[in-house]
Each structure stands twice: as C-alpha cells, then as structure tokens.
Amino acid sequence: MFRYLREYRFSITLLFLLLIPVVAIDTATRAPREYRFHDRAILFITTPIQTLISWGLNKASSGIENYIYLWNTRKEHQTMIEENRRLLGKIASLREMQQENVRLRKLLDFTSTHQLQSVIARVIAKDVSTEFRAIRINRGESSGIHRNMAVITDEGIVGRVLRTTKTTADVVTMLDLLSAVDSIVERSRARGIVEGMTDEVCQLKFVIRTDDIEPGDLLITSGLGGIFPKGIPVGTVSKANRKAYGISQEVEVRPSVDFSRLEEVMVITSAGLGPTADFDQEVEEPTAEEGSSPAPSASAIPSPNASPTASPSSSTPKNR
C-alpha cells in the first residue's frame, strides 16, 4: 500500500487539494444545519489556509495601493517644490520692484518739492580705485545729460557729471579728493568748502576758527558755483576741532547719502539757477562776501577738459 502511495503521491495530493475547496463550498452553500464531523474537519483544515490566503491578498493589495499612492504623492511633492520655488522667485522679484518703486517715488517727490527738472538714472558701475571715487550711470548725452551737471538723490548731494557718452556718464562723487561743494551750516550760516577725504567722511575746509560749528549741524549747498541748487543736504558735522591758534578749524562731515547703497540717482538738467548759470561752462570762482570765509579758486575742482575719453570697461576708469 505504501508503494502505491509513493507511486501515486502526486495524484493523491492533487485530488486532496481539489477535494478541499469542493467540500468547503458544499459546506458553505448547504442549507442551514448543524456541522457534522467531516464538516468540522474540513473547516479546521481550510480555515487557516483561507485566512493565510486572505491575509496575503490584503497585504498585496494594500502594498500596491500604497506604492501607487506614494508614487503619486512623490510626483505631487515634486510639483509643489517647483511651484514653491517659482513663487518664491516671483515674491523676491515683486519685493525688489516694490523697494525700487519706493526709492523712485522719493526721488520724484524730492524733485517736485524743489521744482527741479531732472533725469533719473541707475548706477551701473563704481570705481574700484582707492584714489578716485566715481560712479557710472546709464544715462548720457542722448538723455540730455552734459558735463558739470549736478547729481543728487532724495537724501542729498552725490556729485557732478565729469564726462559723458551717448548712453553713459561718469560722475565724480563728493567723496573724491578733487571734489568741492560750496556749503553753509544751516544753523549758524557759516560757510566753507566740503571736499572728499575717505570713503565715508568728508572735510569742511576754509572755515574760520571763530565760526559757530558744532557736531550734529546740517550742511546744505550754498547755491554758488552754478552747479548745485541751493538748500540740498550735503552732510552732517561729525567732528569739529577748534584749535587755540590759527585762522581755521578742522571739521569732519559725514555725507547725507549712503554711497554703499547707492542705486538710483537724479541728474539735474535745469534748476532755475539764473540766467548766468551754464552747466557746460567751467565752474566759476564764488564771490567772497563780506564777513564770510575766503573761497578757494576754481582750480580745486578738476577740469573736465583734461579728462580722457571714458573707457568701456565695466568699472569707472581710474585715470582722468
């Protein structure tokens, strides 16, 4: 008998496996009654198998669904990341436009208040030299800008146009050693010449030792010289050293304009300086008034005629 079992073990196993579901189905579909012995035996054998098969199918189905869900979630996450980056870039651009609009509105309000005709320009280059302090703007002769025109912002004086091309202009700032701005102290009306000294500080020269000047005093343009309109802020006195001897005193001035953050400027094309004012002419020596400090000669301001043609380099040329 065991020989037949070994010989036909495959057929017997197959028959047994086929018989189990048939009996199970017959047991499940039969009319309601009490389970008999063979029903209980079949259920005892098939229940673990059915449970295992059901568990496996549920796990497989859940795994497939989770995989598909995670794949879709990953795609959605990647899409959201790209959308977030795009929106962040747009927000940064809008914020920059808002700040630029605020600065331009201040410039327009300033020109409207002082009744100045001007051209707004953007700073496109700065001189990297430690000897000369100049900038280059993106407006030139085609915009009506010429040599010796005043360059300002809503904060105060920037400098004057040194030379021009059709589309650009080089501006020598008030921080330059050869720059000179005739100024008066707003409080005491003491007068002197503001000249560049360092990248952050200027000096007020030709100030009589007896003039009333104190730290914190505001300096404004005097209107003499035919370049800068009267009443434009120049800077604030940061130090005043009145010596016990001599005819002058040492005065340091911190400019009103923050040159490290300079982006837009205004070039004054017409300021109502009177019929004798001509921006294309050399700067004339201011007339010394009675009781005022002596004024320097016009040679203190660099002559634009001695300046070479502007170099097309990315920064403002060093040689003049």
Give a quick rundown of the structure.
The chain has 320 residues and is an alpha+beta fold. It has two domains: 38-114; 118-306, Thrombin, subunit H (Beta Barrel), CATH 2.40.10.
Structural write-up:
- It is a single chain.
- With 320 residues, this protein is α+β, with helices and mostly antiparallel strands.
- The protein has two domains: 38-114; 118-306, Rod shape-determining protein MreC, domain 2 (Thrombin, subunit H).
- The chain has helices at 2-7, 9-29, 37-114; strands spanning 117-126, 134-137, 150-152, 157-164, 169-173, 181-185, 191-196, 202-205, 218-221, 233-241, 250-255, 264-270.
- A six-stranded antiparallel beta barrel has the order 1-2-5-4-3-12. Strands 6-7-8-11-10-9 form a six-stranded antiparallel β-barrel.
- Helix 2 (9-29) crosses helix 3 (37-114).
- The protein is rod-shaped, with a radius of gyration of 44 Å.
- Mean pLDDT is 76; it is low at 272-320.
